[in-house]
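Hi all, long-time lurker, first post. I run a small reading group and we've been trying to get comfortable going from sequence to structure in the token notation. Rather than ask abstract questions, I figured I'd post a concrete chain and ask someone more experienced to write out its structure so we can walk through it together at our next meeting. Sequence below, copied exactly:
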Amino acid sequence: MSMNHTLEIRGLGPLEKCKVERVPFMIVTGEQASGKSTVAKTIYFFRTIKEDIVRLAEQRALCRPATPGYLESSSLPGTAARSLRESLEDHLRTKFQSMFGPAAYLRKDMQLSCHYTDDCRMKIFLKSGGSAPDRPCLEIEMSDALRSLLESAEHALSPHAESLPAQKRELQERLRVLFDDPCPVVFIPAGRSVVTVLSAQLLYFYGAIDDSLKRALDYCTRDYVERVLKLRPEFSGGLDGLLIQRPDARLPSLDTALHTARALVRQILRGSYWYADGEERLVTDDTQCVRINNASSGQQESVWVLNLLFYYLVRNRPVLFIIEEPESPLSPESQKRIAELMALVHSQGHSFVATTHSAYVLETLNKCLHTATVENADKNGSTGAIGLDLCRLGRRA
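-- Answer (accepted) --
Happy to help. Here is the structure in token form:
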């Protein structure tokens, strides 16, 4: 992992100036309105750009005709009529506005810069001028290496279905190398119980509204809702069903971690999650079945934190989890257990950025990660890094 991977935030929300380096496990803490969510969302914004590029390249490929020269580029619809770089810039402006609000509401000195590697950098800032000097617009600067990749990827994906998957994998690998970032991102926002309460109607409501209304949702929340809708059917056999279908069936260390994780999930939920007959359910320890929207607030708020942690632990493909207030609104004992689960998932190669107000979470994570480091030192003869970075934010004066 490159030590060059740094993010600088200036004048965004309550943050005057903040520098964040990529670490395996980061906890962001502070008072209300001190900028915790701003840090988490900014990390999400920049760490998901590589996926944005692949998605836009795929859209362009599907819009192009299969016969070369059949249409001039100026005749192509929407995304395909513009260069990949222009399409990415337009997308990032829309994405930024969805997450942080219109440019007119931002401070004039707002500036974000992400230094992925020596060759890959991006800066976002406000610029006034043109026909409306009082209305700033969002400017995006990219390093030469990133601009060069976008230019070379202009036609990297073809509309031929048989070649598209292989070309997509090749582009993803090029982006992983350029951005020095192999991990996809899983964002879990605060206020999760709203999605859970609407469980039975969620698919209907989300499918019924048009794309413009979906875009009105916060970008991170929309990503979370779509992920939940996509993965719910995977839990038709509960956690045990996921274990039976796991892709890596013979990894002793992972097998131990999975069984420990399953026990922690059951202790926190006081039961097991199932998705059956289009309905989310909890089967409690006394074998009573409860619809998820009739469960306690703690169960509703935590169920998909637990599900997603367990699902990606089973998949055994490292991801970056960005979780807002994983402890909300759990009891102190359950807060400790969810911190133990996060440390356990981290031990299997996953990374974390989490915001929290909980002293129980901080204490438990510090203890678990320190213990893991000491045990690793006993085995390998070197201490290594504990992997927990505490970012404590203060309120702007």
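A couple of things your group might point at:
Residues 67-77, 380-386 have pLDDT under 50 and may be disordered.
The radius of gyration is 22 Å.
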